[in-house]
Amino acid sequence: MNKSHYSVNGWxxxxxxxAIVHLRSGETKRLGEYQFKLLACLAQxxxxxLSRNELTALVWHRRVIGDNSLSNAIHALxxxxxxxxxxxxxxxxxxxxxxxxxxxxxxxxDAPAEESVGxxxxxxxxxxxxxxxAPLQPAEPHTPASLPVIHKAKARWQAIPRRVLAAxxxxxxxxxxxxxxxxxxxxxDIVFKEQVKNRWxxxxxxxxxxxxxxxxxxxxxxxxxxxxxxxxxxxVQDTGMTIYxxxxxxxxxxxxxxxxxxxxxxxAMTLYHWRVDGxxxxxxxxxxxxxxxxxxxxxxxx
Length: 302
Prior knowledge:
alpha+beta, Double Stranded RNA Binding Domain, 13 strands
């Protein structure tokens, strides 16, 4: 049985992974959830101008977003689709109206329903539209290596709450996804190093880097104000947080998990031009962490 997928400028939209895959080369690019929704919305209305209000309602469902969120997402899509921001061949800006995806660059492609176009073993969560301005780096379809199995006595496993077990499993899967992502760096030895040990009671921070990188704590200290506020919330909610991050000159890959005895949450973000405004970065990190904390199911006191 076949399922229809949109393609834009030779890139196939895969709804299962929020990724776009080049129809000829097979190159895969992972988009943020809202970037992917925006591209799908424009494709569904190809040739039809959509106002900023319409796009905000259709994609973000009237969630409060930054003033530049839509513009940044459009810029990210143009970069991902190899469009020229000046010529605007694929996605056009309609002055005082909104945006339009040229119908000539949009097509419907049949793909097997049971197949997923491209894979990416990481948590699929909304990326903050206000901070994201370009897609993640291309990743090739790949099946991660098997995760280690920890053998324990059956009775001891049964004594652990199911939600805690789920949090452990999610953490292992997340580590597998992060390992796969960084393993794509050619001819480099990838290392994980815990940063600023024992600075925060409920937070552990791990930096992912190649062996040649300077592994000091300077990068994570750029958001120490946000983490100090988060740590106070974690203490009150009796919740632990683990952060994995990797930096380049222009990009910050930032993933965290939250786990309590009653629930667990996770979020992966890719932030571009993150060095430009330290306050905005700190506010964004705190806001998104607080949002996930508010989603967690509180533990009932005995």
